[in-house]
Write a structure and sequence with these properties.
By secondary structure, this protein is of the alpha+beta class. It has 2 domains: about 200 residues, BirA Bifunctional Protein, domain 2 (2-Layer Sandwich), CATH 3.30.930.10; about 40 residues, Roll (SH3 type barrels), CATH 2.30.30. The protein contains 6 helices and 12 strands. It has a 7-stranded mixed sheet with strand order 1-2-3-7-6-5-4, with helices on both faces. Strands 11-10-9-8-12 form a 5-stranded antiparallel sheet, with no helix packed on it. The mean pLDDT is about 95.
């Protein structure tokens, strides 16, 4: 990992996001894209309060710091789109053309291969007034793991897809490049292009009806749109359109 600037490599910590948060409190001038990578995360956190499993030394567990102070507080979903597309494009570098078509983004920001989860993203923002002061992007990407715990519902790794083993540093290099590229694009105001890429990669964006669950119960619907603020719009079987925020909708 010596090839990376502003990067820490640690054998084991509870959480890369928490570690980077604590580091930032001690040193508020940490540069953008400062990264923390660990071989093992003992208390990894995922979305919806879930934990994140990863066998030590086999996968990518990493957090990055961004300072998108040019974004308003209601534009937080831009960072989610940035991270999702960066991970999807990074993984595509190691897949053939048919396999690349199987990489999608499950709303809001899980990365899927077919119907299996290959990566998870946890983003934490700090707001100052009406702007985003900084964002910590935590990424868990399944790379070389072959045997997952049976209680995980649908995991898959890059090595399970291709049958190959990978140098984690090589994958991280592609990942960092993609994060930088997407970040520079939104700095230049190209947020519409980023949103279009996100929609193109969206899981279940094929016009079919799929099962979901909300506070009102289980139903079938198809995805109509994801708004720039992250709200997803579903078309129910009766033709009615309904909007859902994160944690209001479960994919079944």
């Amino acid at each position: 990992m010596k090839r990376f600037k502003n990067f820490e490599l640690l054998d084991e910590i509870p959480s890369t996001n928490s570690y980077l948060q604590e580091l930032l409190q001690k040193n508020p001038t940490l540069p953008e894209l400062y990264g923390v990578f660990t071989r093992h995360q003992s208390q990894g956190r995922g979305q919806r309060g879930n934990t994140w499993h990863s066998k030590p030394g086999e996968n990518i567990i990493i957090s990055f710091l961004l300072r998108p102070q040019f974004l308003e507080s209601n534009e937080q979903f831009v960072i989610s789109e940035l991270a999702s597309i960066a991970v999807a494009r990074c993984l595509a570098q190691f897949l053939d053309e048919d396999q690349k078509k199987q990489i999608t983004v499950k709303w809001p920001n899980d990365i899927y291969y077919g119907d299996k989860k290959i990566a998870g993203i946890l983003i934490e923002h700090s707001l100052t007034g009406n702007t985003i002061d900084y964002s910590i992007i935590g990424l868990g990407i399944n790379i070389n793991e072959r045997d997952f715990p049976e209680d995980l519902p649908n995991p898959v790794s890059l090595t399970q897809i291709t049958g190959k083993q990978y140098e984690l540093a090589e994958v991280i290099a592609f990942l960092l490049h993609e994060i930088q590229e997407q970040y520079q694009a939104i700095r230049k105001g190209l947020r519409t292009d980023l949103h279009a890429r996100y929609m193109k990669h969206l899981y279940r964006r094929d016009g079919q009806f799929y099962p979901y669950e909300s506070a009102q119960g289980i139903f079938k619907a198809r995805i109509r749109n994801v708004q720039p603020n992250g709200i997803i719009t579903l078309c129910h079987e009766d033709g009615e359109l309904h909007d859902y925020a994160f944690k209001e909708l479960k994919f079944l």
